Amino acid sequence: MILLGERGSMRLMDIAGELGVARSTAHRLLVTMRESGFVTQPVGSHQYTLGPTFAGLASPVLVHDDLIAAARPALAGLRRATEETAHLLTRLGADVYFLDGAESLRTVRVGLKNGARLPVVASAAGLAMLAELSPERVERVIYLSKRVRDVDEVWVADQIASVRALGYAVSFGLALEEVHEVGVAFQYNPGNHIAALTVAAPAQRLDAARARELGPLLRQAASSLATQLSRQTT
């Protein structure tokens, strides 16, 4: 991190050379640091830079400004189609971070959470993103989670299996009892970055049947957004 702080950004081969280690060793170190949010790779770049965990809570917005700009029509479309609040999230280590959103216009609604963080295992977005990861990366996220909270690994495995079977994740009161969410994760650029879209509503308006209706809408929005973002980097 000292090297990156001094130089702003560096390639993997340059980091390995400066540290005097093999590229494979440097890559493993960087993967671990990226999982915790200490380093990041901007979209379309081979350079590593200091990540949002190191730089502070304002950094996720700066790092993901292209994603935020691209997602705003999708968020507006989800709000219009569902009449509920839609959010865009990314993952920082064992947490999810709310990047942006489009708030429902209904009198009783879930408010925007821009800038907030939730445990990965206590959010529809987090569970959806875990389902996109390899078993090894899931293990690292669980390891990070266990350092600050109890995590039921069997329950997490069951949730991941459910997401993969259904095509969407649900959170029925995991973070707040009165708030239910449906989430879909997507990879882009191509597959190097991951984010999620969610629709959140008061518990009385979002049950399992409503979740089944929202899942396809979220999948379509996420797929279109991933395709758009990947085209921007080619």
Task: Give a written overview of the molecule.
- This protein has 234 residues and is of the alpha+beta class.
- The protein folds into two domains: 2-56, Orthogonal Bundle (Arc Repressor Mutant, subunit A); 64-232, Beta-Lactamase, CATH 3.30.450.
- Helices cover 48% and strands 22% of the residues.
- α2 packs across α3 and α6 (65-82) packs antiparallel against α10.
- The chain is globular, with a radius of gyration of 18 Å.
- The protein starts with a helix and ends with a helix.
CATH class identity of the largest domain: Alpha Beta
- Main sheet? 6 strands, antiparallel
What structural category characterises the helix and strand content? alpha+beta
Strand content: 15-25%
N-end to C-end Cα span: 29 Å
CATH topology of the largest domain: Beta-Lactamase
Number of domains: 2
Q: Largest beta sheet: what is the strand line-up?
A: 6-5-4-9-8-7
By CATH, the superfamily of the largest domain comes out as: GAF domain
Order of helices and strands: HEHHEEHHHEEEHHHEEEH
Average pLDDT reading: 86
Q: Which architecture of the largest domain per CATH? A: 2-Layer Sandwich
Global outline: globular
Number of strands: 9
Tell me the number of helical segments per DSSP (H or I, 4 or more residues long): 10
